[in-house]
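quick one before i forget lol
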Amino acid sequence: MFKLFYSLLISVFIFNGCAPVFNEFQSADTVGDKNTLVTPYFSESTAIPDDSDSDASSIEANSTVGLRIARGISDKSDIHLKLEKIDGNGGYISGSIFSLGYKHFLYKDTVNNYRASFYLPITYATRNIEENAFIDIDEGSSTNQSYILLEPTMIASSKLHKLFDLNVSAKFIQKIAGDDLGEDINESGLAFNISGGITLPELGGISIIPEYGILFWDQDKFTHTGLGISLDLSKFKN
């Protein structure tokens, strides 16, 4: 049963380069005209099988190290560049992500400090599967594939304390180009993330972002937990 689930897991990993990558590590706020926000982060993902697959348990799927750079083109709009390196559990799978996105601020409740924004990234994802006991690959060879994904995302934030933000997001991920995924593999998924933005007043311009997320893929689910550190470069200007 484990071998069957692992084979399924590898198939689903095709969806987004190495493994489903759906983290956010950002609030609804834009960074401001001509300002720059840099956010390095890391996360760990877990695969949870279909509920009907009672003999299979969740397994560690992959680890991700990434960097998000947001540049303000106006007070209400940003351009985002996102780079990620992905390593699958067991060393069989690796991948990378290059994403370019546009973010627009939509709404602010000045009384309760609720904010909302829309974020639209286009992502180029690659994956490499090395020869292993769970998938049949020609001897000594590897499988290399690439995909282009569209990921419309809604982000909402609420300031619960002057030093703490609560952020939630909903993301739809759709493959729009690239290598064939196969007849039985869905080409889209739905992800949700929740994170905190913890401001460190003694370190002006630096915030810590712990995050948890879940991706729904047919009857299977993937979760991730991670930590980001955002640096508002405008706070470091002389």
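fyi The two ends are 60 Å apart (CA to CA).
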